[in-house]
Structure formats: structure tokens, C-alpha cells
Amino acid sequence: MSTTAQTAIPHHIAIVMDGNGRWATRRFLPRLAGHRQGVESLRRCVRACVARGVGVLTVFAFSSENWNRPADEVSGLMDLLAKALAREVPQLSRDGVRLHFVGEKSGLSDKVRDGLRQAEAATAGNDRLVLNVCFNYGGRWDIAQAAAQLAARGEPITESSLHAAMGMAHVPDPDLLIRTGGEKRISNFLLWQAAYTELYFSDRLWPDFDEAALDEAIADYAARERRFGRTSEQLQAAAPGSLRA
Ligand code: IPE
Ligand code: IPE
Ligand code: MG
């Protein structure tokens, strides 16, 4: 444990929920069965985050590049999202979860778009956990669309104006980014917001990522020293948690 240990629980956790396809293939099941199991794993993870006092959970559910998958997998994922929303929103609301969808809405069908809007409206009064679902999202898309907004308004492009125009402006940057499924890459997730996020890679496939695995990731995070460009000695002199990038 470092001398400047974090507050043990990260305020904002982001997750690349990877490995659903392999989970299914290993069981001789269609890939979509893995995605369905992935929804179960997300439900468990949300409840675990609520129980641990995490304030924000941001999950990568469908990337700008996932359109390149076979058409039946893409349509299956769209369908799964619409059905999961219809089924899960009442319980999410009881648990105090507020939903936000981050990503390019224009690429989605009317049915999916309506589902997202309704879920956001139905949970807008909740304040225990913010759940950001990145869907049809890419970090590059987000930076480019923010720059385009500023250009259209004739506003100067600065770090803070860009930040404010991006899809994640309503929450602080993630403290911990977990990627399951064994790959060690970002795959166009939160490129801007992850500048000083602690990265954690797990070999577990997303459907197998349970509470104990989440606790391991949180414990690993708690033992890290976040320096934000400063020296260890400076951190030791400062009040715990007072330093940011
Ligand atoms: C992540 O699981 C979910 C989505 C990208 C929608 P994958 O479907 O990428 O699973 P693997 O990586 O093929 O195992
Ligand atoms: C990242 O996983 C996107 C999501 C989890 C939604 P991918 O499976 O699409 O990433 P790559 O293709 O292995 O980089
Ligand atoms: Mg994958």
C-alpha cells in the first residue's frame, strides 16, 4: 500500500465489458447467448457498485466500430438493449440508479432511441448511482462532435470548452478503468476522459466478472499512488485526495 492511498472506493468506475462472445463460444452457444449473459453480469455489477458506494459507473456496451460485426449480431445487440431496458428500468429505479446514454443517437433506430429516452426520463430523479451506458460510442467521435459543436457556435476550442461539450461532461473523469476479457487496449473508449485514470486489466470474461473480481480491482486501485504529474514527496505533503490533474 502506498503512503498516499486513495479513498478506498473509486468515485467513478468505467468498464470495457469484453469477452461475451468467447464466453458463449466456449460453451458451444451462439455469441448472442454470451451477450445475454453479459446483461446479467452488468445487473450484478450495478448492484455491487450501489452497495459499495460507487457514485458513477460507465460501461462500454457498443462501440462505433461494432457496426462492422455480422448483421445478425448487430441486430441481436440492438434488440437485447431494447428488451433489457424495458425489463430492468423499474428495478434500477428502486435501486436509485440514474441512467444516461452516451453516444451517437442518429445511427440508432427510432425504437432504440425511444427506449433510451424513456429510460433516461424514468430514472432522472434517482441519485444513488449514475449509470452511463456508452452505446454507439467512440472516444474519437466524442472529441470530434464536441469540436464541431464549438465550431458551429463560433466558440474558442480550449480544454475546458471541449470537455464541457463532450458526452461525459455531467460526471467527473473516471478514477478506475477496468477491461475484462484479457485484451490490453482501450478500443476507442473514453480517450479524453481517461487521461489520468488508473487502468486495470482482468483475464476474466465479462459474464464471469463477479463481485469478488470487482473487489479485487478496487483493492488494486486502492493501493496505487496517483501522482498527476507531481512527485511522491509532494503528495505526501498534501491533504489526501486533494490533488487532481
Ligand atoms: C463485448 O464482448 C461486447 C460487445 C462488444 C458488444 P465481445 O462480443 O467483444 O466478446 P469477445 O471479445 O468476442 O469474446
Ligand atoms: C470493445 O470491445 C467494445 C465493447 C466492449 C463494447 P471489442 O471486442 O469491440 O474490442 P476489440 O475489437 O477487441 O478491440
Ligand atoms: Mg471483444
Automatic annotation (TrEMBL):
Protein EC: 2.5.1.-
InterPro entries per record: UPP_synth-like, UPP_synth-like_CS, UPP_synth-like_sf
GO cellular component: cytosol
Gene3D superfamilies registered for this protein in UniProt: Decaprenyl diphosphate synthase-like
One Pfam assignment: Prenyltransf
Any GO molecular function: ditrans,polycis-undecaprenyl-diphosphate synthase [(2E,6E)-farnesyl-diphosphate specific] activity
Gene Ontology biological process terms in this record: polyprenol biosynthetic process
Binding positions for substrate per the UniProt entry: 19-23, 31, 35, 63-65, 67, 69, 179, 185-187
List of catalytic residues: 18, 66
Keyword Metal-binding assigned: yes
Cofactor section: Mg(2+)
Record bears the keyword Magnesium: yes
SUPFAM superfamilies xref list: Undecaprenyl diphosphate synthase (SSF64005)
Residues that coordinate or bind Mg(2+): 18, 198
Cofactor binding, per record: Binds 2 magnesium ions per subunit.
Keywords: Magnesium, Metal-binding, Transferase
Protein role: Catalyzes the condensation of isopentenyl diphosphate (IPP) with allylic pyrophosphates generating different type of terpenoids.
HAMAP family associated with the record: ISPT (MF_01139)
Subunit structure: Homodimer.
Family as reported in the entry's similarity comment: Belongs to the UPP synthase family.
Protein's name according to its UniProt entry: Isoprenyl transferase
Lineage, broadest ranks: Bacteria, Pseudomonadati, Pseudomonadota, Betaproteobacteria, Burkholderiales
